[in-house]
Design goal:
It is a single chain. This protein has eight helices and five strands. The protein is α/β, with parallel strands linked by helices and 221 residues long. It has a single domain (3-209), classed as 3-Layer(aba) Sandwich (Rossmann fold). A five-stranded parallel sheet has the order 2-3-1-4-5, with helices on one face. It is globular.
Length: 221
Amino acid sequence: MGRFVVVEGLIGVGKTSLCRLLAEVWSARLVLEPSEFNPFLEPFYRDPGRYAFPVQMFYLMNRWKQQEKIRQEDLFHPLVVSDYLWEKDRMFAEKTLEALELDLYARFAGALGASAPKPDLLVYLEAPLPVVLARIAKRRAPGEEVIQANYLEDLAERYDRLLSGWRQCPVLRIDNTSLDYTGDPAAREAVLRRIKRALDGEPDVPPQADDDRQVSLFSGS
């Protein structure tokens, strides 16, 4: 069975860009959050109380279908990379749903998630909220223009709580405030090197202490 790497972090922090880089350089199988347009998402940003449950159930079912495909097919590929963690869905549900809705959601999520594949490494990207907000504003994705700093701050706290009790696999936290791994070859090599070490169970080394080393590309062996 191949190895499974998940990249996580706040909206706009650079998850998908890093996943695409790993897929390109290491010939990994790329799994991005379900691309089906969620018809409830934009209304949810404007009226969370009314649209929280349908938007969450839409994501749950689409994520589950994708996780099943990873479990049944994609993990036979030497490396699979994804830009979301299955457990993230519950984290968002706890933030947005009322108690009765959350209970109903939990019944479905618990049954569906029992067979979700477990990652070999979780890469968590971090950046200050002003940086994340600036990136969100720059990319101008539909619905995201109404996202506020307090929403992201709450999400960051929820991620911290999730990671504080995370025991399923190693976690590599990367500061992505100014790390241009899409345009800077040195930054790209540094981040690839850190992820490769983490996958191999080696200690993390700060990039500035390791600038003279060459990146070792992923091997399926």
